[in-house]
Automatic annotation (TrEMBL), chains A, B:
Residues 34-54 bind DNA. Belongs to the peptidase S24 family. The lineage of its organism: Bacteria, Bacillati, Chloroflexota, Thermoflexia, Thermoflexales. Residues 91-209 form the Peptidase S24/S26A/S26B/S26C domain. Represses a number of genes involved in the response to DNA damage (SOS response), including recA and lexA. In the presence of single-stranded DNA, RecA interacts with LexA causing an autocatalytic cleavage which disrupts the DNA-binding part of LexA, leading to derepression of the SOS regulon and eventually DNA repair. Residues 15-71 form the LexA repressor DNA-binding domain. The record marks A98, G99 as: Cleavage. It is an enzyme of class 3 (hydrolase). The active site is at S135, K174. Keywords: Autocatalytic cleavage, DNA damage, DNA repair, DNA replication, DNA-binding, Hydrolase, Repressor, SOS response, Transcription, Transcription regulation. This is LexA repressor. InterPro entries: LexA, LexA-like, LexA/Signal_pep-like_sf, LexA_DNA-bd_dom, LexA_repressor, Peptidase_S24_LexA, Peptidase_S24_S26A/B/C, WH-like_DNA-bd_sf. Homodimer. GO terms for biological process: DNA repair; DNA replication; negative regulation of DNA-templated transcription; proteolysis; SOS response.
Length: 224, 224
DNA sequence: ATATTATCCGAACATTTGTTCCATGTCAAG
DNA sequence: CTTGACATGGAACAAATGTTCGGATAATAT
């Protein structure tokens, strides 16, 4: 057995291989062969690749189907390398009614609703709530509507916000305008008159960035 | 050369192969090998498959990448075998304002908006309109909202419909209730009072099955 | 009928690809 | 240092896969 100079052990070769598979899939929409991985990562022998693939399989990160060519399948996507999804899952945190504060954003989601990516500038941190009752009707939000909320302690003047009124123990949706030491809460409905409250009597919970409503009976589906 | 009994020529074998590739891809998310096609369609020799694959390539229905295994790629999906898309394109027909009738459903679309499949019972025949102005505000539909409409000459009692008022030359959204020879048009807003008109003074244009609203400035994107 | 074209068939060849074997090297713990 | 787990290297085998070739048959045009 010949032995040239050994290259040093690559401590994270396993992760490199995983990432390579993911990148390959993203570009080619198919999985690489053992030898394509070998060449792509300049590994000296297919047996090394095979060795790591077995390990990855033990760790449940990939599966291999039989002896078929290109039989590698990713079970989990390495961070940041998941293929671009068209639909972004937003956690659904439950109903929201006038008399109750909104659920904590980190609460265990009751389900997920998937929103087309182009509809959202950034899906991060968003959550969805189902509106109960007509209390937000002057924000043009009716019973059963689904709202997508971005948590935020403050909002720009004029933005539609989820507001918790500390003294009334009420949640509402209003456009918020700061006016000195008080705040004007303006309904979306043009003929409704605004509400003025002291600045310390409200807590901004977040911005409403989207309202979704289905009219034909069934509400927008939330997947478990 | 031996010669057993020949099987009759399969006149549409080429199409069968194409369909087989599509089915295989739908299920496996990868492309079949020549011999997998051969076995799947009970073809006597891989050369027959190869022969048809060349033809399909000439017809620009598939591509083949080099000598790589599983190197077939579909260029067009045979009818009815396209993979299930998560997003259904709905034609966007333009703005709708109080004073104008809605565009004809068959009009040339100005763009497309893609709606998640689970949100729609059936995407067939639907179209999207952008609401202009506040004239439909008592249906909880505001300026800039996008509505998804299913064309229909009639609606069930209580359904939200796009209604053309023939004498006023106005388009509105209302819930429709038949009451003898007149019709009650009920706003979605609970405090607004209904409008009563003679049955012949309205034209039902369709049902509103969805309302979509983006609050953070940008309207829901319509792709050209 | 004859000619022409399209299709099929079996076999074999040439690569590609998955897999195994065994020797050897690397590294950290004891 | 010794040990053991982990990792690498080279080679070869076996199976799979893509491809070619010559000839046959079937369908269609002339």
């Amino acid at each position: 057995m010949k032995r040239g100079r050994r290259s040093r052990i690559r401590r994270d070769l396993r992760q490199e291989i995983l990432a390579f598979i993911a990148r390959w899939y993203r570009q080619e929409r198919t999985y690489p062969t053992v030898r394509e991985i070998q060449k792509g990562l300049k590994i000296s022998s297919p047996s090394v690749v095979d060795y790591h693939l077995r390990r990855l399989e033990q760790e449940d990160l990939i599966t291999r189907v039989g002896r078929r060519s290109r039989g590698i399948r990713l079970r989990r996507w390495p961070d940041g390398l998941a293929p671009e999804e068209d639909l972004i899952p937003i956690p659904f945190l439950g109903p929201i009614a006038a008399g109750e504060p909104i659920p904590h954003p980190d609460a265990e989601p009751l389900g997920w609703i998937r929103i087309p990516r182009p509809w959202l500038a950034d899906g991060n941190g968003l959550f969805a709530l189902r509106v109960q009752g007509d209390s937000m009707i002057d924000a043009l939000v009716g019973d059963g509507d689904l709202i997508i909320v971005k948590p935020a302690p403050e909002v720009e003047d004029g933005e539609m916000a989820v507001v918790w009124l500390t003294d009334r123990h009420e949640t509402t949706l209003k456009r918020v305008y700061r006016e000195g030491d008080r705040v004007r809460l303006q309904p979306a409905h043009p003929t409704m008159s605004p509400l003025y409250v002291p600045a310390e009597a409200i807590r901004i919970q977040g911005k409403v960035i989207q309202v979704l409503r289905n009219l034909n009976g069934l509400p927008l589906p939330v997947e478990p």
